[in-house]
Write a structure and sequence with these properties.
about 100 residues; globular; mainly alpha; about 40% helix; single chain
Amino acid sequence: MSGTSMASPHIAGFGALILAKNPDWSPATVKSAMMTTASDVKLADGSKNQDVFATGAGEMNPASVLEPGLVYDAGTEDYLKFIQGTGVDLGKPGWARHCPAT
């Protein structure tokens, strides 16, 4: 009913197309290309859907996703630093906590 069952294979297919054009890109870079080129999701009346939990980054734009301009990459260390920054002690000395533990 939410459209996820058809969105997932479409996005996976576009991910494969992006990797075919840019085979050296990481999964994080492919995701970034999709998210940074996404457009607003519209409601039936044409207004912007304000529910970020229903729309995510937005509607993927197939015309621009292959030429995103700017993409961000992230690796394992980036994700671990993010987790530790939320207050979870991963035992990595020198990684400053960015947020206090709750």
